[in-house]
Amino acid sequence: MPSKRHSSYVYPSSRIAVFGREPILGQVKTRLEPELGLKGCLALYRAMLSHILVTVRDSRLAPMELWVSSNIAHELFLKYCYKREIYLQKGEDLGQKMAYAACKSLNSPSIDSLIIIGSDCPVMNREYIARGLQALHCTSDPVDVVLGPTLDGGYVLIGLKQPQAGVFQDIEWGTVHVMEQTLERMAAESLKYHLLEPLWDIDRPQDLERLESLDALLDTYLSV
Fold first, then answer.
1. pTM for the full model?
2. In the chain, what percentage of residues exceed pLDDT 70?
3. Is 74 among the domain residues?
4. In a domain, 23, yes or no
5. Which residues contact 79 (CB under 8 A, 6 or more apart)?
6. Is the CB of residue 38 less than 8 Å from the CB of residue 26?
7. Which residues are paired to 151 by β-bridges?
8. 30 pLDDT exceeds 50?
9. How much is the pLDDT for 3?
10. In-domain check, residue 6
11. How many CB atoms are located within 10 Å of the residue 108 CB?
């Protein structure tokens, strides 16, 4: 039974896990350094992480978990999350880290589904996450996995009802092959899936042009 602390959510027995990194100069958004410089990359990363944390927190869709690479007590994390909501990632690559988070969350008897998202997609909003949760909870057409693809061959959201560690294995993370290989893994394991509409994210210098329309949104968080 969901605790009273979680009773005000639309999906109190679900969790939304945000994956992030400690915002350290020279260690975030490094592919964008030629265009933005070290300080610009850090400012952009802080803005995008802040934006997704506020989006999830204020959505009241499901309780939030923040999974970070290091330093769970960082001031930016604690600005948006309680310390009890922050967890350390474990694993050698992104797949192992997501598999660990999925196992940790979904092995809890009070949790029946999990959405994992990152901070690279500034156009992800409450409605998009809600559609992912709705697909996971659909009883008329049940699925095992929900994916939110990106336009460059990856994904910005994955939803699960079971840990499904195999979905994260043998994937070339950070390449254009991520989505294709993930679909192959799901087919190999006979998993039924639902695809949300594709979104764009910010990974490479050519992606920065899309940010021009979001200047006002990002300016809100550039001072954090």
1. 0.93
2. 92
3. yes
4. yes
5. 50, 224
6. yes
7. none
8. yes
9. 46
10. no
11. 11
